[in-house]
Amino acid sequence: xxxxxxxxxxxxxxxxxxxxxxxxxxxxxxxxxxxxxxxxxxxxxxxxxxxxxxxxxxxxxxxxxxxxxxxxxxxxxxxxxxxxxxxxxxxxxxxxxxxxxxxxxxxxxxxxxxxxxxxxxxxxxxxxxxxxxxxxxxxxxxxxxxxxxxxxxxxxxxxxxxxxxxxxxxxxxxxxxxxxxxxxxxxxxxxxxxxxxxxxxxxxxxxxxxxxxxxxxxxxxxxxxxxxxxxxxxxxxxxxxxxxxxxxxxxxxxxxxxxxxxxxxxxxxxxxxxxxxxxxxxxxxxxxxxxxxxxxxxxxxxxxxxxxxxxxxxxxxxxxxxxxxxxxxxxxxxxxxxxxxxxxxxxxxxxxxxxxxxxxxxxxxxxxx
Length: 369
Ligand code: SMG
Ligand code: MG
Known about the structure:
By secondary structure, the chain is of the alpha/beta class. The protein has helices at residues 60-75, 82-88, 96-113, 118-122, 141-154, 169-179, 198-202, 221-230, 244-252, 263-266, 269-281, 295-305, 352-358, and strands at residues 3-21, 24-38, 41-47, 128-130, 132-135, 158-162, 185-188, 211-213, 235-237, 258-261, 286-288, 337-339, 359-366. Helix 1 (60-75) crosses helix 3, helix 2 (82-88) packs antiparallel against helix 3 and helix 9 (244-252) packs parallel to helix 11. The structure holds N-succinyl methionine (SMG) and magnesium ion. Residues 21, 23, 55, 134, 188, 190, 238, 289-292, 315, 317 line the site of N-succinyl methionine (SMG). N-succinyl methionine is lined by residues 21, 23, 55, 134, 188, 190, 238, 289-292, 315, 317.
């Protein structure tokens, strides 16, 4: 397959309610939508970098710049296939989210031309997957309990509470006391704690959490290992894991016993599958994280979550939890499950009218000949 060029579109989707984490509050998703054009047709991708470099070092305008100035020229003239994208971009350090978006669009294009779904290509084994919902930091406990009640009533299989110092034990205790021991409950700190908090965090053992996600800085595997040694609650890494090599090292050091896999954070769906394989070989369960994706990323994440090692519910909630109007058809919960798309490629396409309505800028980057 030969690359003609990539169209970059910045889209803005207002969130149905503000999403507050220890990193800040989001009221809208600014996303970068890619359309790869090749001699074999078109494919769509999404870059999950955020406006600001707070969750990770990448940010949207930077990702667009990397794609424009370095990625498109590096792929021009190649006999392009999904499995060769990462290698062709290896000389560019970092920028996993930019690379992932391009690999995703190449995968979509390639698989559409071969009438194969991403789920089949990755090796998904389940037609439907249980999913969870990530609940932001709230102003008060009453609002939190109402929100959790609504999500459990809707059928979500797991509740994840965002935590930070000052909003941790109390909300966890309130949710556990109100909804009982059968509710699968996890917490995510997005790196808000320091090694001095290890004893405090071990106190969460009293509440039967399925896991505690990324309490410490991305590079601080040592503190994650220290918490894991001291606490009964499984430690899960998110921000720390940017490759299969990272995953292998974290498992070896005892820094995690669960891994959150986000294709964008690790450079693409193919590296995500390698992390799944490494984790499975070590008996480490994985689950699919979320970055408030549009329907394009949601479709791809559902395909990934169909792999056998994805044994915990992911942050792949129904569209209505995020957006009133997405750029694709909405994804819905059916009996607490979400269906893995079966059509070729990602299995969804942007709805032209919704895409146009959400688009703020469009740019065509031709592959240099
Ligand atoms: O897509 O449902 C979603 C969001 C899930 O909590 C979520 N994502 O650290 O796991 C995480 C966060 C990252 C995005 S907010 C900074
Ligand atoms: Mg996280």
